[in-house]
Amino acid sequence: MKENLLERLLCRPGVAELLRQLGNVLVLTPAGRVLLDCGVVDVPAGDAARPVCFDGRELGRVAGANAELGASLLAHLAREGEMALTARQEEDELREVLLALSSELNLERLLCRIMEAASRLLNADRATLFLHDADKGELWAPVALGEQGGSIRIPEDRGIAGQVFASGVPVNIEDAYRDERFDPQTDRRTGYRTRSLLCCPVVNKQGRVIGVIQALNRHGGPFTGRDQTRLLGFAAQASIAIENARLYHQMEELVRERTRELDDALARLSGELEAAARYVRRLLPAPLDHGEVCCSWRYVPCHSLGGDAFGYRWIDDDHFAIYLNDVSGHGVDAALLSVSVMNVLESEMLSGVDPRDPGQVLSALNNAFPMDRHGNMFFTMWYGVWRPSRSELVFSSGGHPPALLLRHGECLRLGVPNLLLGCRADQEYESAAQTIRPGDRLLVYSDGVYEIEKREGGMWTLDRFARYMAEPGSSGAGHPTLDQLMDHTRSMSGRDGWEDDFSIVEARFG
């Protein structure tokens, strides 16, 4: 058997068992060693090429020495096994610590957990992690493990921490007060007594030193070289968690800043929309409480700005106009188009058009507001003119729900099957006429009044809406009022608001 093989066997776990398997075999190695019954002894130098014979007395001496060395070998192997087990346990503990650190994204909590872990891994009394603040030229820590509250800030070039940060080289000191580099100010401030100290740089993936970590007062003696190696490795892994937490913190700050900016923008926009909504509402006509015709309305846009608009006015002493238009969509665009249509009607800006002729009015509006010039938006409209001298209502509509004429328990639908407005140029719109009697009620509305999704499922339809308005009111006399209609639709949907603009105008003829 060659000597180098024996040496390798002697250094490997399980060597005792291998030696036992050799039995009472005597082997002379070139170095003059004898292998016998689990032991190794030196023998006088001789001719290593020839077998050596021993008498009984020599064999006894070799066997005795062999037994003693065998016991020493077993003890050594036991110590090696224990050290290997301890190292494995420490590796497992370090792996668990690093896994826990990787899941912590709050920077201050992470720094505290790193200090706790470093103190525990090195069996130290306390540990401190300093990070570099480039803006202030300082090293800072949220708090030193073992101290109460506050934070620590020191110049980036002061003391041992400053030296390690600047050089990137670890410092291991057995007695801090015998080292001139040690700055005792923190000890004086806190009443703590630093003895042994181990300080290592914290280096990120780019190789830049971002801070230092130092452990103080190792239990059981000064810090060892192995402690230094472990702390360096731990610091390298901790730096990744620190960079991740910093990045997360930066992203949080960015999100908060963007959220504040968005909130401010939304607040300004909300204010502007509210102002616009007030403006639109001021354009709507005031109720008419007396005279030959009385008018009232209810208007609840589903958003701040809706796509519905309406109006009524005396064109002259014998012609009273009433209309309602509903632009496709909701929001600012729809509101702008709807208000534009209303302003055109109120200011009689349709050149060469008789406002007393509903068919002419709708034909002119259709040409004035083509959808290809208004964001592909179209609109529906009902427009009527009442002439009290003839007790006649002339009306026209384009894609709009028919007006309802309520008369002593019956409900007449007043509509003309014309095309939506804005879809086709030069479209002619037909008109129709209806006799009006004293006591009649005319309802002009948008489809948001009756397109109600019921809480139990299904939709409320135009037919059901018409039947509801034709029934006697809750008092047993007349038809339901506008407020009763609103309460009824809210009750059906189970919501306070409506999914579409709720617009309805009521005219009562005397």
UniProtKB/TrEMBL annotation:
Which Gene3D superfamilies does the protein's record reference?
3.30.450.40, PPM-type phosphatase domain
Q: Which SUPFAM superfamilies match?
A: GAF domain-like (SSF55781), PP2C-like (SSF81606)
Which interval of the chain is the signal sequence?
A: none
What Pfam families does this protein's entry cite?
GAF (PF01590), SpoIIE (PF07228)
Q: Locate the GAF domain: which residues?
A: 106-252
User: Which residues fall in a coiled-coil region?
Assistant: none
MF term (GO), any = phosphatase activity
User: What's in the keyword line of the UniProt record?
Assistant: Hydrolase
Taking every annotated instance into account, which residue ranges of this chain make up the domain PPM-type phosphatase?
288-509
Q: What is this protein called?
A: Serine phosphatase RsbU, regulator of sigma subunit
Organism, by scientific name, is Paucidesulfovibrio gracilis DSM 16080
